[in-house]
């Protein structure tokens, strides 16, 4: 067997293969992972087909086997030049080679690869530009190891006018075409998808190049790690991990460092070091840099050097699309009426929208009932969620009348020409659906009609909309868009 190990024309030892694999893993996983799992393994035996590693701690053995085996196999394949089966055995009582110095060279693999390519003198073993993560499971492992949620991808994000600018900026950064957007500063209200987009940048960069050293953390975690490093006198390592061992820094909720002077001081130097070496920084916040309370001017001005992008609460079409996507992803069947009811009840927080949907579905299942609008309305009431803006019958009558060039008195009157009776029936349908008032009460509000007239109108329009009658469905959708905006 011939190993091309870091361009040295010699057979590498089992220890060298393991060291090289660890070096590659170091470029993909954070230090904590390396310390907790990989430094606790040692190579034991190597044949043409198999490399055996030992772990003294049974938990480490099981955890690594269940979570990182694919990654190890890939790293070993790159190091050894061929695929080997990896086996992890209980090391208790077995002698293995101690792994002493895996930090032989902290220069990132990608940089090493590029330097060697440029010189042309040698062939680099690792070509990260062409390195593709084949199985999504590998990407998921990288993403989880970086502390991110594999679900927070661009694909899972529903784009609407409230977030399309920020979404586009994030995509530009992730594809490397947004080099002037440094830093990218995302701000917006609670639960609107800031963290989702922030992590989507990291996930996309890892997908494009698994060797990217992505650091994702909240500003609070940054501060906690800083305090711990000060206590444990490990500041050099703390600084290194952010200032040098990082290609992309994703900081969530930067507003947290407001008023925390030492954290701001440290972050200021981290920011400068990364910025000067051309490394991308993306931050999220609940306010613009200038509005952040307790943030030093020198930091606030730096935050505004690149691009500031905001996320607004989603408009009705986006709320509906988000609900449909979440329902589809969870294999849930959600009627159009229920979707609309939820989308009109929760307007300003996507997290709440998503959470309420899942709770409602779970409760309907527990009660063994289909999730129709009546049950959904009851559940919303029980969850103490009111329509954020409640519609009343008068408003609906006026809106329908003006949409069809009629007067409110036509809708409430008794003329039965089609041009009037159809809009009247639609107004009755919308009133029942969006106010939930009883049929007799609605009859009174529609000019003293019998409750069966309202009931018949409601059922007729509901039927037409559900069976996909385009003319009626389109008219109702237009009216709802007008009423619920
Ligand atoms: N446009 C969207 N498409 C799909 N899912 C979304 C969208 N916006 C938000 N979400 C979902 O809503 C939830 C909350 O989003 P996220 O945590 O990113 O909000 P945030 O703005 O960071 O909130 P906070 O201000 O509380 O930190 C997540 O599950 C996210 O996937």
Automatic annotation (TrEMBL):
It is found in: Cytoplasm. It holds the Pfam family DnaA_N. The keyword DNA-binding applies. Residues 1-111 are annotated as: Domain I, interacts with DnaA modulators. ATP binds at residues 191, 193-195. One of its GO terms (molecular function) is ATP binding. Residues 392-461 form the Chromosomal replication initiator DnaA C-terminal domain. SMART domains: AAA, Bac_DnaA_C. GO terms for biological process: DNA replication initiation; regulation of DNA replication. It comes from the Bacteria. InterPro entries: AAA+_ATPase, Chromosome_initiator_DnaA, Chromosome_initiator_DnaA-like, Chromosome_initiator_DnaA_CS, DnaA_C, DnaA_dom, DnaA_N_dom, DnaA_N_sf. Residues 365-485 are annotated as: Domain IV, binds dsDNA. Keywords: ATP-binding, Cytoplasm, DNA replication, DNA-binding, Lipid-binding, Nucleotide-binding. Residues 180-309 form the AAA+ ATPase domain. The keyword Repeat does not apply. One of its GO terms (cellular component) is cytoplasm. Plays an essential role in the initiation and regulation of chromosomal replication. ATP-DnaA binds to the origin of replication (oriC) to initiate formation of the DNA replication initiation complex once per cell cycle. Binds the DnaA box (a 9 base pair repeat at the origin) and separates the double-stranded (ds)DNA. Forms a right-handed helical filament on oriC DNA; dsDNA binds to the exterior of the filament while single-stranded (ss)DNA is stabiized in the filament's interior. Oligomerizes as a right-handed, spiral filament on DNA at oriC. HAMAP family: DnaA_bact. Domain I is involved in oligomerization and binding regulators, domain II is flexibile and of varying length in different bacteria, domain III forms the AAA+ region, while domain IV binds dsDNA. Belongs to the DnaA family. This is Chromosomal replication initiator protein DnaA. It comes from Lujinxingia litoralis. The gene is dnaA.
